[in-house]
Amino acid sequence: MKAIKATGYGSPDVLKLSKAIKPTPANHDVLVRIIASSATAADTMMRTGKPLFGRLILGLRKPNNPIPGTGFAGVVEEVGSAVTSFKKGDQVFGETTIGFGANAEYLTIPEHGVIHHLPANLNYADAATYCDGVITSYNFLKRVAQVQDGERVLINGASGSLGTAAVQIANYLGAEVTAVCSSRNAHWVTSLGAPHVIEYDRNDFTQSHERYDVVFDTVGKSSFSACKSILTPNGKYLSPVLSLSTIGSMLWTSIVGKQKAIFQATGMQKDPELKTLLNEVLSIHRDGKLKIVIDRQYPLEKLAEAHRYIETGRKKGNVVIINA
Fold first, then answer.
1. Domain-embedded: residue 145
2. Is residue 272 part of a domain?
3. Residue 202, φ and ψ in degrees, nearest 5
4. Which residues form the domain of 48?
5. The whole model's pTM is what?
6. What is the pLDDT of residues 30-84, one digit of tens each?
């Protein structure tokens, strides 16, 4: 089968179109022919192997799992002898988490892993992105921050994959949303449900005179110390991006003060918890309150080009990889 493999850590040039052995499903596995997969900002960070301590999980000198990508959507090609929930021909989508392997023609995933039948109102491209931005943002806002009706939530990076989902989810939860994005995306982000917008190329949101119950820094470009002054006395700074600064702030705020800095790797949670989160966000989608935003689509062989585009910082919503 065709697959993209990372030959090591580094620039997008390490991503090479390669031949790989088509996987064979074990007794409890599902073999999926991939139609669409995701390419994310997190993928680009993992490709670089930075921060270096992340290599303790990913692989010291090169990725332990050389085929990148975690979100996928496709058709069941074959099932293991003990599989009962899926059959050949089923349309499915899901997330491989730290198993990676989605930027390829085929992958195997445990029947009880993060895999779900494709709803009638969700297409392959949208579904491939679902378990990244949507689940991560929902987890942070609903579970971690426990956002309540009427609370004030600021979302930094509101035009990205996590950000576009976060604006809609925070709005669904009843929060008063302030979105931070570029001036060229301001009107568009407002249409997603953000009544207030701060254009970062014109104003520094950390210098705002407003106070927020939650600051969700979806892109990890700020810090707890920079946002401390715009948090309410019990406010929370949330970041899905691992950094030494955030780790230090987490440790400090766990001991001192009521304001908290929180990092969490949503994708590291156990499969049953991720499936619960997935079912909850699908209910929001069924209610018509959640729209998936696709910026660009690339063929599998141009994954490196997709990574380069993501790294420009101009991405609106999601980037999808399509298998011809």
1. yes
2. no
3. -125, -30
4. 2-118+293-322
5. 0.94
6. 999 999 999 999 999 999 998 787 788 888 889 999 999 999 999 999 999 999 9
